[in-house]
Amino acid sequence: MLLFCFVFPPGDTPPTEQPKCTDFQNANPFRGTNLKVRFLLFTPSDPRCGNLVEESGDLQNSGFNVTLGTKLIIHGFRALGTKPSWIEKLIGALLRAADANVIAVDWVYGSTGAYFSAVENVVKLGLKISSFLSKLLVLGVPESSIHIIGVSLGAHVGGMVGHFYKGQLGWITGLDPAGPEYTRASLEERLDAGDALFVEAIHTDTDNLGIRIPVGHVDYFVNGGQDQPGCPTFIHAGYSYLICDHMRAVDLYISALENLCPLMAFPCASYKAFLAGHCLDCFNPFLLSCPRIGLVEQGGVKIEPLPKEVKVYLLTTSRAPYCAHHSLVEFNLQEPRNKDTHIVVTFFSSNATSSGKITIPKQKLQGRGVLAHPTPQCQIHQVNLKLQASRQFWKKDRTTIVGKFCTAPLPVNDNKMTVCLPEPVNLQASVTVSRDLKIMCV
């Protein structure tokens, strides 16, 4: 028998075995939903390699940094038992945007099959995650440095974990928290503002898969919370029709991490009131600190104590980076009318066009609206105004009106940013009038 002996020169050490990367599990949706939870740590040094961590020793040997914050990602229901298609992109965006540990919770086995079976696993999963977090606390990780990012059903799992920690975790972000089985659930069963020091939720599919009620300190209802621009509107699109609105919350969050253009929102009583230009700043209740989607502390809200369940609204574009610059548009009639007046406003910049509507109630002189544009307001060079004709089948509407058009970027905190056309505008029904806009860049 031959024995081979390797001798390393003085000062050299044998090469250490590199940790093997662990990927998400794939489950068979027809074989039940046994809960097989795994925790995968991702670090800036190797953002594509997940290290399986189960014990404190695993964490210490896998590059976990106790001095950094920890982002915990929890996916939702997986009908086909497959790895979430967005997970790698979100992990990468988090690692680039924040100096933090990123841990993805793989519960594909427990989330597959029937949706109601996955719901039944939420409490058990919450206990598993809570037990795992206790190991982080033993290592010296502060509760306030833990940020849970839960997608759909995963948002309520995050709420369950936060409830177990008596609301002392630092931050929970719910990306379109699931609606089915949760709209009428108790606070203990679903995500709510008491589950962390700061809880936010991004709502994009409130009429289908997402929850329609506010569940955090700040609740973003993007484009009103449903029917996202760029998503299919017909069932012929198949799976994309079912999931596009719901997954837009994930796309928006990733975009907010990757781009400087802010996704800013404005508190308002309703989406209709927001579009009508009734909510132009963030004074009430945020004292002008408008909330923003992303990793800004407390969403940019700088008041204490935080108000709860504040609905905030924003408009977006149809594709990444999704961010839009909101403008107040206003028309002041010289004389009131006996019917509502509807004016379509269209902004033009060098590479984009966007439209909105102003409604002036009957017997009123002023009407307002909110219009969103992909570029800053100072890059808009032209505005088109068109008076909508009334429905008269027997004759052409020849109505004419005269008034003054003005616009200002949101938030409107003073009148200095308002720009008006120098001369009154004459509008005839169904006839488009174009005017140049000259707005200074700040």
From TrEMBL:
Keyword list, A-Z: Calcium, Disulfide bond, Glycoprotein, Hydrolase, Lipid degradation, Lipid metabolism, Metal-binding, Secreted, Signal
Entry-linked InterPro entries: AB_hydrolase_fold (IPR029058), Lipase (IPR013818), Lipase_LIPH (IPR016272), Lipase_N (IPR033906), TAG_lipase (IPR000734)
Catalytic residues in the record: 152, 176, 246
Subcellular location: Secreted
SUPFAM superfamilies from the UniProt entry: alpha/beta-Hydrolases
GO cellular component: acrosomal membrane; extracellular space
Chain ranges of the Lipase domain: 11-322
EC numbers: 3.1.1.111
GO biological process: lipid catabolic process
Binding site for Ca(2+): 190, 192, 195
The organism's place on the tree of life at top rank: Eukaryota
Gene Ontology MF annotations: metal ion binding; phospholipase A1 activity
UniProt catalytic activity: a 1,2-diacyl-sn-glycero-3-phospho-L-serine + H2O = a 2-acyl-sn-glycero-3-phospho-L-serine + a fatty acid + H(+); 1-(9Z-octadecenoyl)-sn-glycero-3-phospho-L-serine + H2O = sn-glycero-3-phospho-L-serine + (9Z)-octadecenoate + H(+); 1-hexadecanoyl-2-(5Z,8Z,11Z,14Z-eicosatetraenoyl)-sn-glycero-3-phospho-L-serine + H2O = 2-(5Z,8Z,11Z,14Z)-eicosatetraenoyl-sn-glycero-3-phospho-L-serine + hexadecanoate + H(+); a 1-acyl-sn-glycero-3-phospho-L-serine + H2O = sn-glycero-3-phospho-L-serine + a fatty acid + H(+)
Entry keyword annotation includes Hydrolase: yes
Family the entry assigns: Belongs to the AB hydrolase superfamily. Lipase family.
Role played: Hydrolyzes the ester bond of the acyl group attached at the sn-1 position of phosphatidylserines (phospholipase A1 activity) and 1-acyl-2-lysophosphatidylserines (lysophospholipase activity) in the pathway of phosphatidylserines acyl chain remodeling. Cleaves phosphatidylserines exposed on the outer leaflet of the plasma membrane of apoptotic cells producing 2-acyl-1-lysophosphatidylserines, which in turn enhance mast cell activation and histamine production.
Name the UniProt record assigns to this protein: Phospholipase A1 member A
